[in-house]
Amino acid sequence: GLRPEKAPITHGRGKGLMGGLLAESRRAEEARLEREQQKEAAKRKLRAEEKKKAEAEAKRKKKRADEEKEMAKSIREKKRSAHEALGSGDQAEKVARFNTVGLPVEVDHLYAGAVVRVGDGDESSSSPYDFVFDFRGGGKHISQVPLACLQFVRCVRGGADFLSPPEVDSSSSDPDTRFAMSVVSMLAGYNFLSDARHSLDQRNRELNAQNSELVSESSRLKEARTRAESEVAKLKDLLNHSQGVNGELIASRDDLSSKVDALTLALTEAEEAKKEVESRIEGEVAELRSSSKDDVARAVEEAKKRAKDKLRRSIEIMEERSKAQTEADRLASLASQVVGAIRRMEKAAKDGVPIDAAKKEKLEARLASYTAEADSIVLPPLPSDSSDDDEAEPKKGVALDISSSDSSDKEGEKSEPEGRSSVAGKTP
Asked: What's the domain of life for this entry (predicted)?
């Protein structure tokens, strides 16, 4: 590659320019990588949310289907139980028997063998209920009003004697009234227990739903934590890689700065040598003037002219070498940046991250272009101190000088830090 001794010449100005360019390139690369990571994270998050929504929707549909199945099953069970309790639909009337299991002894005889009609069995009736009973007790419970209890039992039994006055006294001492009051008390207790059980079932369903939501939320949080830990590990790897590249760039900047300082010192020494030569020539001219006006004047003019021409050629050659070397180092820096980008893409491909093949080919073409430009650069030979040889040595090309021997290439490649490559070595 471009060897360390071929450093740019800036004539003592803009020593931090290359460092600024490298820092700006590094910041641009870090910003690009950060944008790509943010895009990838946003895509992964969107896919995860869509997947989670689809799973939640599937769960809701399944739960709704299960609930509908359970509801249909419950309705069928209730209908079957009702048919079993009420008897066949072919009967002329619907009847219900009281369950006396668990009743107190004092009321057991009231329900033993009792059969209560609950409708006339007419399926064409417009009412959805088997019987309708309206009670307004003026703030009292129906079990506290004997007449209302008797009317309720008559309403359940059906028939024309629903609202007719009782044939006997409707006080609590009448057997029918006592039976009616016991029936109402039993029904009131059953309704109370049913309401309490219904509330408990509702509470259990709510708790089960909340538990399912908490389990789902816990799973989602675990998945999010796993994804976050993976992202943190990737970011740590990227940070370590960025720090390594940053260290390489800083070392390259220091190397270039030292080369610039050396060339600046060489130019200063050349300027001092030029002043010494001019002073010596002026002294010789003064001596020649004192010896002979005519011959000496011509000799002085010729010597002065040759000296000026020689100095001018030397300065031009030094400037050309400085420009050529500066261009060569610029190409080397650009090639190093391109090679670093290609290696990062190759590392990302090894990690399984998709890369832009067109962009990689473009970078490789750019690297080949930089190499070709470096090969086309030539360095003029240093001026000779011999005053007899007016012809300059043939100019040497930078690329020929770089690739003249295999050992030079190997030394140049070994001198490069990891993460960079040389132009002459043609490292892909």
From this structure: Eukaryota
> Which token pair is 232?
């943190």
Cβ distance 359 to 347 under 8 Å? no
Residue 324 is encoded by which pair of tokens? 């050529």
Q: What is the DSSP letter of 382?
A: P
Instruction: Centre a 10 Å sphere on the Cβ of residue 245 and count the other Cβ atoms it contains.
Output: 19
For 318, list phi and psi in degrees, rounded to 5: -65, -40
Domains contained in the chain, number = 1
Residue 391: which pLDDT band, with cuts at 50, 70 and 90?
Answer: very low
CA 235 to chain centre: 11
Give dist(CA 215, CA 341) in Å, integer.
Answer: 45
Q: Which H/E stretch holds residue 190?
A: helix 175-291
Find the domain containing 132 and state its range: 94-218
Q: Distances in Å between the alpha carbon of 237 and those of 158, 170, 226, 242?
A: 86, 94, 17, 9
Helix (H, G, I), strand (E, B) or coil at 214: helix
Task: Give yes or no for a contact between 332 and 2, defined as CB atoms under 8 angstroms apart.
Answer: yes
Model confidence at 402: pLDDT above 50? no
Residue ranges in 355-404 assigned as alpha helix (H) = 357-376, 398-402
Q: Express each pLDDT in 153-180 by its tens digit.
A: 776 665 444 444 455 445 556 677 777 7
Question: Is 177 part of any domain?
Answer: yes
Q: Locate tokens 């060489």: which residue?
A: 266
Higher pLDDT, 412 or 67: 67
SS3 of the chain: helix, strand, coil, percent, to 5: 70, 5, 25
166 — phi, psi (to 5°)? -65, 150
Residue 18: inside a domain = no
